[in-house]
Amino acid sequence: MRSDDPLLKIEGLRSGYGRIEALHGVSLEVRPGEVVALVGGNGAGKTTLLRAISGVQPVTAGGVRFSGTDLTRASAHARVKAGIAQVPEGRQIFSPLSIEDNLRLGAYLRKDAEIAADLERVYDLFPVLKERRRNPAGGLSGGQQQMLAIGRAMMSRPKLLLLDEPSMGLAPVLVDQVFAIIARLREEEAVTVFLVEQNAFAALSIADRGYVIETGEIAMTGSGRELLTDERVREAYLGV
Amino acid sequence: MPDFLQFCVSGLTVGAVYALVALGFTIIYNASDVVNFAQGEFVMIGGMTTVFITAAGVPLHFAIPAAILAAMVIGLLLHRLAIEPARGASAVTLIIITIGASIFLRGGAQIVFDKQFHSLPAFSGDTPVMIGGAAVLPQSFWVLGGAAVIVALLWFFFNRTLLGKAVLATAANRLAARLVGINTSFVVGFSFVLSAAIGAIAGILVAPITLTSYDIGALLALKGFAAAMLGGMGNPLGAIVGGLAVGLLEALGAGYISSTYKDAIAFIVILAVLFVLPGGFFGRASTERV
Description:
A: alpha/beta; Rossmann fold; six-stranded mixed β-sheet; four-stranded antiparallel β-sheet; 10 helices; 38% helix; B: mainly alpha; ABC transporter involved in vitamin B12 uptake, BtuC; two-stranded antiparallel sheet; 73% helix; transmembrane (chain B); membrane (chain B); transmembrane helix (chain B); BCAA_transport_permease (chain B); Branched-chain amino acid ABC transporter permease (chain B)
């Protein structure tokens, strides 16, 4: 694979819930090392797209290629194995399990000897998780749960990290923290990031490139900076 | 006083069986939200298969693993052929499927085995041990000890192994489990196999005391379910406490009031408890999953 070949390539993806189609042929790509943001309003199809990429949402047409392999019909666990990890909307941590078990389960498919070392790295990144590692994860605050969900996803050593609304329901100071962590992960862990956000300003600020999705279709694309300064984007999503 | 002790011993023995059935309910319910009313049939399959294999001349210590294995295969088939194809169906539909499966298994057992009552020889003889004036059958120690070993192994499995934690993770959040790469369909199938093995072991251990026949499953499922509800559906500790409590209630009711009403007494007390504590002893406050 050449370095400018896309890591993730989605072509004409269609998906829906029952007879209601939520994605009407979405095409986009994420290249290695990039941070790409997908912004759009409520119900535009952002979460559906991420679910389809992770293989927990049936796809009716189109394809998902990852690292040059067709994953359109692959199981969710095969995609994790291939290197796709998702931090789902609303964290979705394993509340009754301990924080450490949550992280350990992030490495569920790994068989290598470096799991313990990676656990320490996550603890370095999020010291609060280490302090409380024996406690049930459900006792963490919203922001801490978001850290845990990110740490859990990183434990699979993903090539591509999918983040669904990481800022949702967090206080502004925590939103800044979460985005700082995403930027740090890209620097230190060399992970490619595909980020879905309603908080368009924060997402586009850290993104190399962005896509705007409207009612299940890609409406606009460009660099993060271009989209941030685009009149229509500013009006529709940035509220200025 | 010796009477009381005697009733307690027999209550705990049969209660240990209810506890194992309730644990089987709990494991499957947690992993899949399915209330498996075919759980009692695993107990029947364990006992009946052992009886018929030993009758064919196979020594008991080979017959027992074979019977457990047979129950595990049937548990797997139950999941693959009856539960998995109905994935996404409502809880009521799934319950009806398991009731259908239990009727099917009972009918099958009637054909494969027979309609007679059978017993297994006690593992360590029939000479009762006197404890504080109560005569305790050696087989009671097998039942209680076997149940204790199973509970200890389950504790180790769920707390110390990655697969066990994957089952707990699937129970806690199915979507997140799939997103970390857990094959949740395998986990649910595995929980059926595990529950089948536990049920079969219970059926084998208790067969020398209570006898076994093709149709013991239905009442055991009902008692085990009542025990799980009493303890708090989904809580393993609750299943054990609930099972022992139902067994004790039955034995004390039969001893002090009337053995004719022993089933009724147990159910009346359970109803009374659930009026006061709808979630059972260890139940969650909310009942959203029902």
